[in-house]
Amino acid sequence: MTSVDPQLPAMRRGWGWSLCAGLAGAFLLLLMARGVIQHPPHYDELLHALSARGLVESGAPVIADGRYVRAQAYTQLVAWSYVAFGDSLLSARLPALAAGTLLVLSMGVWVTRQAGFVAGLATALLICAVPSTLDVSVFARFYTLHALFIALIFMALFAVAGPGRPLAWRLVLVAAVAAVFPFAKSLQQSTIVAVGVAVGATVMVAVLDSWITVRAWVVRRPVVTAAVMGLVMAVGLLLAWQLGLFEQFRSAPLWAARDAGRLQYYIVAFREELPLLWPLLPVATLLAVTDPARQRLAVFCVVIVLAVLLVHSLAAQKSVRYVYYMVPWMCGIWALALARVIEAGGRYAGSRGGLAGGRLLRLAGVAALGLTLLFSVEGARTLNVAAGRLAQLDRLPFKDEPDWRPVMDAIRDRAAAADRVVTSNAMKALYHLGRYDYELNATIVPETDTFQDFGIDDRTGRPAIGRADSIARVLDLPGTTLVVLETEKLGRTSGVSAEALAVIVARCAELDLAAQAGVRAWWCDRPNANPGDDPGIPPSGSR
Questions:
Q1: What are the tens digits of pLDDT across the range 431-474?
Q2: In degrees to the nearest 10, what's the CA dihedral of 83, 89, 90, 94?
Q3: What is the rounded CA–CA span in Å between residue 195 and residue 340?
Q4: SS (H, E, C) 44-71
Q5: Is the Cβ–Cβ distance between 111 and 17 less than 8 Å?
Q6: What is the DSSP-derived secondary structure letter of residue 533?
């Protein structure tokens, strides 16, 4: 799937150099992952970890009394990993790490083939330096797998626009994209956006290749050109409406509602993640797109990055993970600019200092750039994580995730003895305690079958509640109730409201738990209740 720019001078872009560039990045990512892959579990990844356990045990992706059917391809990979390496969180995360490693490897190899060794190596290493790469690579979720398949789609479409390609070969590449598309879409609905953006980027590259002809056409037929562009936009909007993309993009769960209207969300998020590189992106873009030797690839990358950021900034639900498939191509822009600067510096050094002096000046320039990146926040963080020096780092994957493990001895026996368990995190309760009966989390309520309190979450077959009167009704049930809540959800309208928490505090006795776990628990006993006092709420697990 290579279509090397014919304007590109003979540089180190053979298969040997390409593999070296890709393997360097892949090795760095594995080195970084080894110290952080055993982080505390997150709700989302436990959806796959628990449903994969169901696949192994029963052949169906069951969790408690429900089923988790989203992104079943990733769940199946986790199940195979369980069979091969045993049932553990590490095994559940290995498919994501493998996909992340292949992503870095393939980008390093492909960019080297397109733009030379310096650009390919820089791309692979820069991908690793972006914190979200490590986050999604040690996270039992489908983001790296999705990004890998999107990258392959982008590479194929870029090759379709390559000059001198036979029509049959172009059709084969388009057929390959069509074959991969349903699989990628099963992982993320944003695949529709990604492919649309890639088609637009491919058209832009084709226009660039035939700019003189295209410009002459536009000048001679401006009305026809405007009509064609308007028709294409109308068809695109109609297709998006038919696919329900507008509704999906403008809806957000309670936990994401705060950022729904923040158009600057990604600007702020990447500024915090990449304090050196992000402000340099406009400069890198200018350097890359004005480089004749790499202009085609630069334009392709720039269109992808700008279009993806624009579309996802308009979407209501926002997270860096949702645009991760764009990150490798953003790194490609920086890498192309870096390669141009190094080559320009080398030519200048050669013209000033002769052969020997030119080499020294060239090495000095490369060393200066290397040290700048090395001592940047991004570079220092990458090296510290790779070396295992983690204690002083503020930015680590899921560092602030509540960890239930230190308090398990204090609540496991009570969970087994309680008549019911109420929790703000159903997945962690199932993973650590093996049970739960009601999820007290306002975010989950709109995801149930009734969209109201005591509706059933199809993923687990258990009720979810959010209001204060609902938790009061549960605590009025005869017998004992164990309530386990994560502190980060307390007092939040998207989690456990202050009113709901007040009901629990007033009626139950709090257990003495380690504060650093980020978990609080209460024991609630109603020993004098009669069965006739049941307030009439549906029993847990019933439909």
A1: 999 999 999 999 999 999 999 999 999 999 999 999 999 999 99
A2: 70
A3: 29
A4: HHHHHHHHHHHHHHHCCCEECCEECCCC
A5: no
A6: G
Bridge pairing between strands 462-465 and 438-440: parallel
Q: Which one, of 145, 149, 128, 131, lies nearest residue 93 by Cα? A: 145
Residue partners of 371: CB distance under 8 A and separation at least 6: none
Contact present, 184 and 153 (Cβ < 8 Å): yes
For residue 168, what are the contacts with CB-CB under 8 A and spacing of at least 6? none
**Beta strands of 347-501 (E only): which ranges?**
420-423, 438-440, 455-457, 462-465, 479-486
Q: What single-letter amino acid sits at 520?
A: R
Q: pLDDT per residue over 76-98, tens digit each?
A: 999 999 999 999 999 999 999 99
In terms of Cβ atoms closer than 10 Å to its own Cβ (0-12, 13-18, 19+), residue 535 is exposed
Residue-wise pLDDT for 172-224, tens only, equals: 999 999 999 999 999 998 898 899 999 999 988 888 877 666 666 666 777 76
CB 252 within 8 A of CB 314: no
Token pair of 82 as six digits: 């369980």
